[in-house]
């Protein structure tokens, strides 16, 4: 089962980096994110309604969903801000790195999970590599404060909704597919007003309709694979492994978006990969 979870998480990380690349390339980040989740929400809404009709939630379930929903709202709002003010190869590892650090620690405290000594070393390599990629070559006098602040906020929100969703699944309140739809709806509701104010829906669709259609499956598909992995493996193990997406994201940012500090960021990506291998095999 651990091997299956590992494959699911690796696939999740790849898809995550792809839709983040698309978001960075979009005209209006809010409009793009709204459209890819609007289409996936429409596809999954009937399933959610059927599940809620057959298995109504109790108060505890709604409370946990509310907590997850709030963190998802913060995530999507801050994500667009991070990409508006910072480079993908910089802010992506920063926000993922904080989540990679906080989620395992909180999982050990809340869910009584454990990591081996090698697992802790692997986690350390992942976190070190992530933050090294983010901050290497940055002039302290010219730090993009808005990008850093938004990225830190994203990392905190990732931690919050991941822990809430793990609890929801672990207590059997919802299936992964229904929980995914809750995530989609949080994005659609949160971004509706900024999108309408922007009046750029037609412009975004005309220029990026292919990326929007692919993103419709990549974004929810990424989190769906991760939710499936949550059901069969400890969160403290699989959450850092998902940061393989940062390796892909860094390479995409350097090779496709022509962002700077390529060689050193690739070297730091090797530390992340080594940490992932250590955690996945011996964690």
From TrEMBL:
InterPro entries from the UniProt entry: EamA_dom, EmrE-like, Small_drug/metabolite_transptr
UniProt KW keywords: Cell inner membrane, Cell membrane, Lipid A biosynthesis, Lipid biosynthesis, Lipid metabolism, Lipopolysaccharide biosynthesis, Membrane, Transmembrane, Transmembrane helix
Residue ranges of the TM segments: 6-22, 31-50, 62-79, 91-111, 117-138, 145-164, 176-197, 209-233, 239-257, 264-282
Pfam family name, one: EamA
Source organism, top-level taxon: Bacteria
Keyword Transcription on entry: no
Chief location category: membrane
Membrane topology label: Multi-pass membrane protein
Residue ranges of domain EamA in the record: 4-134, 146-278
Compartments in which it is found: Cell membrane
Protein family per UniProt: Belongs to the EamA transporter family.
Name listed for the protein in its UniProt record: SMR family transporter
Organism the protein comes from: Paenibacillus radicis (ex Xue et al. 2023)
